[in-house]
Design goal:
Strand content: over 45%
Radius of gyration: 18 Å
Largest sheet: 8 strands, antiparallel, barrel
Order of helices and strands: EEEEEEHEEEEE
Distance between the termini: 31 Å
CATH superfamily: Lipid/polyisoprenoid-binding, YceI-like
Shape: elongated
CATH class: Mainly Beta
Number of domains: 1
Number of helices: 1
Strand order of the largest sheet: 1-4-5-7-8-9-10-11
Helix content: under 10%
Number of strands: 11
């Protein structure tokens, strides 16, 4: 009996229609939003619903942007990402369908040379052919990590005893994939 071989379709990230954001509490009273301007990645799937699809993603640490140059420089320094030594944040894992359009994106996130298992919620937006005949797919991904799990330990305390930067970092990614 012959065994059928499934061919994986590769989808690349469309950087023009993808956003990678993070949010972190400042002084526990407000939220600072930042994003990464440069990234790359791919998804390999043997089906159109992406269940079990292998996923890789890499963010360029030097492209971090919080709309404040001094803070961006501090985030790139050894206090946080140590961009000179660790120029990328990397993810490798898989999408797993939960039900309907709900998925989990599970895998290993590597920051500053430390890899940890993570699971993010993902919502599949569907597949569409654009006006130029290109097949696209979309996902919205949300999750949270603890920055100290990855060696981003810099901290300061206010006079009242409050933290300057919270440990929890919220992640929000809107990703558009291009087939082929």
């Amino acid at each position: 009996m012959a065994t059928a071989t499934l061919t994986a379709t590769k989808w690349g990230i469309d950087p023009t229609h993808t956003e990678v954001q993070f949010k972190v509490k400042h002084l526990v009273i407000s939220t600072v939003t930042g994003f990464f301007k440069k990234f790359s990645g791919s998804v390999e799937s043997t089906n159109d619903d992406f269940d079990g699809a292998k996923t890789t993603f890499s963010l360029d640490v030097n492209s971090i942007e919080t709309n404040q140059a001094d803070r961006d420089g501090h985030l790139k320094s050894a206090d946080f990402f140590a961009a000179d030594q660790y120029p990328t944040l990397d993810f490798a894992g898989a999408l797993k369908k939960v039900s309907g359009n709900a998925y989990k994106l599970e895998g290993n996130l590597t920051i500053r040379g430390t890899s940890k298992a993570v699971a993010f919620d993902a919502e599949f937006g569907g597949i569409m052919v654009d006006p130029w005949g290109n097949t696209k797919a979309g996902f919205e991904i949300n999750g949270k990590i603890n920055r100290k799990d990855y060696g981003l330990n810099w901290s300061a305390v206010t006079e009242a005893g409050g933290l300057v930067v919270s440990d929890d970092v919220k992640i929000h990614i809107n990703v558009e994939l291009a087939k082929g």
